[in-house]
Specification:
Blueprint lengths: L9 H30 L6 H4 L4 H16 L23 E2 L7 E2 L1 H8 L10 H8 L2
Antiparallel strand pairs: 1-2
């Protein structure tokens, strides 16, 4: 039998009415509490704003950023480095006459061998100077 076709009993009706009454009373109490809190103004600490040391606040923010970003300089840049399926591990080289051979591996080896940002020739010293 479908639920809408079920006969309603007096006990079920009484429980439904009691539940709705309790819910309405709870909503009224919560609404009254929220209205009471909305009326009270929140004082702002205006006098403490003049005593804020901007230099210390900036130094603290910079220190937090460097300690948060610093470990990222040691992460491996190429997740497929030192594997057989690394698409970056390819190079092109050439040699003209008796000159020393020149190739792209000179540039890409730092990344394809599992290097991090701190190991790169140009970016490494810069990150070591800026980050811990």
């Amino acid at each position: 039998m479908a639920r809408h076709a079920e006969p309603r009993t007096p006990r079920r009706n009484a429980l439904l009415k009691a539940g709705l009454t309790v819910t309405a009373a709870g909503a009224a109490l919560v609404g009254a509490g929220a209205a009471a809190q909305a009326v009270a103004p929140v004082p702002l600490p205006v006098d403490s704003l003049t005593r804020t040391d901007a230099g210390a606040a900036g130094a603290g923010a910079l220190e937090g950023v460097t300690h948060g970003v610093g470990p990222l300089t040691q992460l491996q840049l190429d997740p497929l480095a030192n594997t057989g399926v690394d698409p970056l591990d390819n190079g092109l080289g050439t040699q003209v006459a008796d000159f020393k051979p020149v190739g792209t591996n000179l540039v890409t080896d730092h990344v394809t061998k599992g290097g991090a940002v701190a190991d790169l020739p140009v970016a490494g010293p810069l990150t070591r100077g800026l980050l811990p």
